[in-house]
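Bench notes, bay 3.
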Amino acid sequence: MSQATAAEPTTAQGPLELSRVQMNVVFVTILLGLLLSALDQTIVSTALPTIVGDLGGAGHVSWVVTAYMLAETISTVLAGKFGDLFGRKRVFQLGVAVFVVGSFFCGLANSMVLLIAFRAVQGLGGGALTVTSTALIADIIPLRLRGQYQGALGAVFGVTTVIGPLLGGVFTDNLSWRWVFYVNIPIAVIVIALAARTIPQIRPAGKPKIDYLGILFVALGATGLTLATSWGGTQYAWGSATIIGLFAASAVCLAIFVFVELRAAEPILPMRLFRSRVFSICSALSFIVGFAMIGSITFMPTFLQYVNGVSATASGLRMLPMVLGLLATALVSGAIVSRTGRYRAFPIAGSAVTAAGLYLLSRMDASTSFWTESLFLLVLGAGSSASRRSSGRPGKRTSRPAWGCRRGCCGRSSATSSRPAT
């Protein structure tokens, strides 16, 4: 283990000089941490109907997912900058600790309100894990090897898309829905122990400057949008004063956030990033893919269990066509992109196919056959995978890295890095 233990560097100027064994040990630690966050986005979906039957509160079931995603959104923005300011090892360890606390109390929850509250705690930890894992890879892996390791991180999300709903169904049917959350605890303990031993501590230079106003207004804006879209059409009419007010207040908060970020000494989200066409396109398409994937994976098992009357495990198995579409398109598009170097067609076609898949799913009812459901899910998975192909470098053939930097170094920091645009 001594060979695999990273030394304590004192500078953050580029990837550390580690042996391949050291890099691999650190990478396994990061991979396990990312697994925690990625798995929890999908494993709960097949357990939701049983959770509602046990705790009640069917009208608030969407908040079991929404609370996690909202907290994760805010945490992602904050963790990226805090990693730059205080060191990514600390943020990574804190993210694991917060996540495991949330998981433990989610498993103990005896009401829907408590479950939703602790799902938000989980989301705070999960967001920190997701963004810090990617940034740590850039700290420890040289640019020439980075694609291989980042590809493995991306594969984690594909694997959890497959096993998440299945594991959730198996735990729910054979143990208890509470094990959907308890399963995180032993993994988190291992990650915390490994992180303390293997991940190097990069000490940031200078005194950290925290953008408190930016934190406040991005949190208010994101919260208002989430409340408006969650309550609209359910608790309140879309045209009600409450929903319109939430949208208006969110727009004002986000506008103030942009104003603050343009003038902050250390902004949590530098606005100059959006000058890059690549960054802007990737951000928009990430939203589309996340909307399609998370929404369908969350609510399809509920539809299958309530409408088709299948078990939790069976509902997880019925989601496999979506995964098959995702994996098949990823393999084919990856081969084509590697051979031709052209990306533009995939996000365009993928977005159109994703929209078609979502429309087809909206037409399902109790009379829809198993094979028709499978076909619709296959279409959605194929479209989502093609859209994700743009995350590398959309557009024409080019040798420039995804962040638009000619030196190939901008990938080493998080999206909130203070590195000037080039």
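Next record in the batch:
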Amino acid sequence: MPVRSFNREQNWLLPPSLDELLPTDHPARFVAMIIDSQDKAGWEKLEIKIEGEERGAPNYHPRVMLGVWLYGFMNGIRSSRKLEAACRDQIPFLWLTGWQHPDHNSLWRFYKEHRLKMRLLFKMTVKTAVKMNLLDLAVQAIDGTKMGANAAKDRTFDRNGLQKLLERTEKRIEELEKENESGLDPAPVHLPEKLKQAEQLRTEVKKALEKLADEEADKHLNLTDSETKLVKTRQGVTPGYNMQAAVSPVKGSQQKQVLITAEEVVMDANDTQQLIPVIEQARENSGEKAAVTLADAGYHSGKNLVDCEDIKQSVVMPEGETKKISQPYHKDHFTYQPESDSYICPQGQTLTYRGLKKVHNETRRVYRGNVENCLNCHAFGTCTHDRHNGRELKIGEYEKQLRRHREWMKSEEARQLYRQRKMLIEMVFGTIKEALGMRRFWLRGLQKVRSEAAMMATAFNLKTLFSLWRQQPGEHAKWFQAFHEVSQALAG
């Protein structure tokens, strides 16, 4: 078989146009379509001046800068320096910029100035999906994942650790000052670098101690990012944040595609407090409440069940202690007698009210059986091992809702619904971490991290919407109009 000849120095007989270098169904064109659909009001909502300033050196057009960042996040590029390189040698970026080459400083300044308002782009993707009748709100899945922060673990201290570090730092400063004392020689114009670093560390430690002054003794604080917490990830315990998301499937998608309908980053390592806020954000973004919400055991609590009832939200959510619930002498098998405010155990013995008790910051009613009856019962050793008090029940204020939800979770309908959760939500976090390369945040501070997470959620949705857009080549004008109308609605 002959070999094709080639020549790297061959000249073009007719130079190609920039538009010819990019396929008509390329994702860069989809990004450009979204940006071009924004009118003046849309740009003003993002607090971006589309006209530029009358004086001074000309800036790159906002359409160029926003296009580079959106397409960069869609391809796992979050570094302004890597984006600068891409704008020099990657055809999609060259097409988006019109063959311009913004430097990393210009790219970073644009992102830094507008990243908080750019969170609005995420809401736009959700509302556009709704307008195109793509979102299936028969079910939504909610989950959280721990994401590493841009901070080292060895910079995390409790109050005692900070105090010891301060003592070592002040001792080091004293030593460095003695080293720099030089008799009649004039004092240096600038502080020596080591002394400057030590004094800066002393200032950081003092600020951290002030911040922990009114906190608990076991409170920890990271000197690099004071808003991060120690979280458990697959890589071990590390400073990080808790990223929350809600997702719903795409209608009629054979590839099980999903869209993120809500996203948030919180400092809490626990998911329990995040269920209702994420549900409410998903409803606000999509304009409609999902019929059923799927959540794992990390969100389970009596209060969450009550709150879901208040907003009429059906929820499928298992408990963490399933083994205890299945035991024959779990408190669910004790029958409440409202006329006497007592419980009857499975063996027919009565447990009477004995007072209130604080358990995990929650006040519970305590019921206890007769000690002699418990000791003589054949279930002693299985029901209870307490030889001094007998069997004890601690009943919280949400006991009725917990029991009712346990019965619902036993139904075949609930079990079938819950099987969808893992397929819906865990794939999203896997894609964000593996395909989009976001295993940890690059920015520091909760507000900055939230903007970074919102951009990543926007990029995930854009990739899903692009795949649907590419399947409908005759509907591109309809997509443009949908983005335009959503932009106008958000701006208004």
